[in-house]
């Protein structure tokens, strides 16, 4: 049995479920001994560990630690060193993802995201880097949203934290690269996990699936193999990279700032956009080619009637147009 990670020790934060659990199982299947980390509920973490320990490959132990805190990160590292030895592979998977626009963001919400997604991982890497050896691998988890031109207002804080992570990867790769370590990140798109489906109606899940050429949402086992590859010796020349793992997902075309009167090729657009009494102008917020997208933007993402002033259909371009009026 080929075990390319035999003798390696891996820590995967937030690995009791979802992508983290899949990463831990894939690493163990290739021979690594793995720390299964959780914060609140030990039952899922124990299931993951028992699954690993029932198979050939590396073994797993469970460690409770709140890696959003510096103290929790230190505890996790101490337990790893005590039980399995100094880590060779550190995967920073734990994170939170809220959905609030600027008007609803408060300090508590901000701190939760930056402590969990940025501060905790950074200081855990700082502590681990002091003991990790040459050839070690550090792998962060970002998101495709950092590259999505159509990101919506409620993604503000989450995207900001992941943007910070991607810049951290670039800089740490040069810092720790001098010691023979690599620092990379993966950036998944939507992944079919209970957390992803939580609170989402079926039509929204179906809409997101349609963004992929294969018309489906991937499962965690389709994301985790790239992490395992980055952990191997063969990936030693890949450093400072954020690797997109999103199935070539696409989003509707964003057309911010396009004036409505530039679209007068269509008879439905031949209307007065300025008047003597109202010095306002209609702008296109989004254009797309499926009515499903319209339902998604108007209902699920809370682009309320106070934000969206008009929705019309262009027969010539076969586009649905969402409009906003600015004064």
From TrEMBL:
One family name in Pfam for this protein: adh_short_C2
Keyword entries, A-Z: Oxidoreductase
Keyword Oxidoreductase on entry: yes
SUPFAM superfamilies cross-referenced by the UniProt entry: NAD(P)-binding Rossmann-fold domains
Family: Belongs to the short-chain dehydrogenases/reductases (SDR) family.
Name of the protein: NAD(P)-binding protein
């Amino acid at each position: 049995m080929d075990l390319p990670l035999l003798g390696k020790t891996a820590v995967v934060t937030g690995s009791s479920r979802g992508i983290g659990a899949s990463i831990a199982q894939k690493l163990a299947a290739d021979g690594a001994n793995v720390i299964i980390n959780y914060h609140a509920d030990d039952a899922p973490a124990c299931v993951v560990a028992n699954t690993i320990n029932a198979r050939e490959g590396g073994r797993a132990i469970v460690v409770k630690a709140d890696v959003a805190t510096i103290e929790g990160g230190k505890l996790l590292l101490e337990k790893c060193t005590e039980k399995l030895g100094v880590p060779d592979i550190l995967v920073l998977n734990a994170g939170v993802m809220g959905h609030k626009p600027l008007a609803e963001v408060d300090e508590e919400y901000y701190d939760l995201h930056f402590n969990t997604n940025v501060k905790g991982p950074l200081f855990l890497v700082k502590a681990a880097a002091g003991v990790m050896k040459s050839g070690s691998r550090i792998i962060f988890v970002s998101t495709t949203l950092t590259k999505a031109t159509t990101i919506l207002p409620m993604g503000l804080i989450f995207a900001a934290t992941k943007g910070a992570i991607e810049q951290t990867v670039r800089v740490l790769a040069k810092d720790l690269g001098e010691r023979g370590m690599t620092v990379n990140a993966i950036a998944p798109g939507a992944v079919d996990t209970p957390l992803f489906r939580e609170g989402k109606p079926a039509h929204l899940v179906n809409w997101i699936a349609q963004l992929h050429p294969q018309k489906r949402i991937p499962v965690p086992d389709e994301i985790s193999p790239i992490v395992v590859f980055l952990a191997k010796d063969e990936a030693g020349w890949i450093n400072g990279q954020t690797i997109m793992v999103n199935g070539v997902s696409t989003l509707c075309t964003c057309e911010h700032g396009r004036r409505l009167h530039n679209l007068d090729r269509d008879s439905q657009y031949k209307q007065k956009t300025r008047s003597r009494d109202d010095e306002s102008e209609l702008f296109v917020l989004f254009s797309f080619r499926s009515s499903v997208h319209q339902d998604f933007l108007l209902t699920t993402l809370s682009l309320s009637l106070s934000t969206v002033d008009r929705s019309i259909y262009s027969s010539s371009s076969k586009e649905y147009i969402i409009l906003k009026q600015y004064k």
